[in-house]
Amino acid sequence: MTDVNRQILLKKRPVGAPAADHFESGEGRIRSPGGGEVLLKNLYLSIDPAIRGWMRDAKSYLPPIAIGEPIRSGALSQIVESNAEGWPAGQIVQGIAAWESFSTVSASNLHGRVERIEGIPLHAMLSVLGGTGLTAYFGLLEVGRPEEGETVLVSAAAGGVGSVVGQIARIKNCRAVGLTGSDDKCAWLTDALGYEAAINYKTADLQIALKEVCPQGIDVFFDSVGGEILNTVLTRLNRGGRIALCGAISQLNAGERPPGPSNYLQLLVKSARMEGFTTLDFATRYDEARAVLANWIREGQLTYRDDIVDGLENAPAHLLRLFTGEHRGKLMVKLADPEV
Ligand SMILES: NC(=O)c1ccc[n+]([C@@H]2O[C@H](COP(=O)([O-])OP(=O)(O)OC[C@H]3O[C@@H](n4cnc5c(N)ncnc54)[C@H](OP(=O)(O)O)[C@@H]3O)[C@@H](O)[C@H]2O)c1
């Protein structure tokens, strides 16, 4: 094994949208694991909006990425050397790694072992059966709590999380309506994912389009976008409506703290609820959700799309697609195949 570790480092902090010149290539040494540590070969990197948050010099549930450090990422990795009991070499694991070929981490920080499921590719353990699918599952079913026949509106509906949310809504016999940023993606939502209708929010007048497409109003809004879209949807919420606050990608590159939605009193008028969540809130129930999602995939009720590029050097450009919307489904970068 080479002892050169290829890396992508944070060169400078973005103000506004990230761009190619905020990253630089680097090389580090591969460090043998100390007590309680494992050396990981990184296989797939998960490209998530959370990375943009960690590039900011601000407190979060994890510290910011320092200038000159590798970018941090959710990852699927294989243990190549272990100094931690219960974590043998060869085991595939999920956790937070970095944009580098190899990472040495404390085993206590790993999120768990990954067991392959027959007929399902390994990378799906990072998407529909990983954080993306779990976010969709718990956010919709436990926070949005849709009932049969209700209208469920989903923003960023063609993305990793949103493409799963609409399908779960349909499986639960709800009417799924998606918002996305191109006509092509609208067609994909209705033709391939079973969304009943889709709105291109970039070209439509959202207020008018929502009246047309959701004439009975909106019972559940699964929101990953925030900003003006959230503010408009608040005015179409039904009595007892629920907003599952998953994310606010439209605000991630904003320099200033986003303004509150001026229509928030609609929550009062409609006796409605807006509730935030993180997937971690449901950590004790991941296995249960994975089993249900895998079953839906086997039965042909749930499909998924992983938008994968090869090569560490392509990770920055892939991250930028989160903000331009030039993708469908879950973004990830493939670095290597596992050793069998
Ligand atoms: N709460 C949690 O625990 C949790 C966990 C994971 C992810 N999340 C959140 O879930 C959301 C989706 O994450 P993902 O990884 O699945 O990403 P994604 O949906 O695959 O990609 C983001 C999508 O957002 C849309 N978008 C980007 N900028 C926008 C803007 N200014 N206005 C409107 N739409 C915009 C783009 O699609 P269009 O072409 O449709 O614009 C883009 O494809 C994010 O908000 C993320 O922070 C939350």
The hetero molecules present are: NADP nicotinamide-adenine-dinucleotide phosphate
User: What structural class results from the helix and strand content?
Assistant: alpha/beta
**Number of alpha- plus pi-helical segments:** 9
* Computed CA radius of gyration, to the nearest angstrom: 20 Å
String of helices and strands:
EEEHEEEEHEHEHEHEHEHEHEHE
The end-to-end distance, rounded to whole angstroms, is: 16 Å
Characterize the biggest β-sheet: 7 strands, mixed
Q: What helical percentage do the residues reach?
A: 10-25%
CATH class of the largest domain: Alpha Beta
- The total domain count is 2
* Unreliable stretches: none
CATH topology of the largest domain: Quinone Oxidoreductase, Chain A, domain 1
Total DSSP E strands: 15
Instruction: Give the overall pLDDT as a whole number.
Output: 96
Shape: globular
CATH superfamily of the largest domain, called what? Medium-chain alcohol dehydrogenases, catalytic domain
Q: Can you name the CATH architecture of the largest domain?
A: Alpha-Beta Complex
Strand content: 25-35%
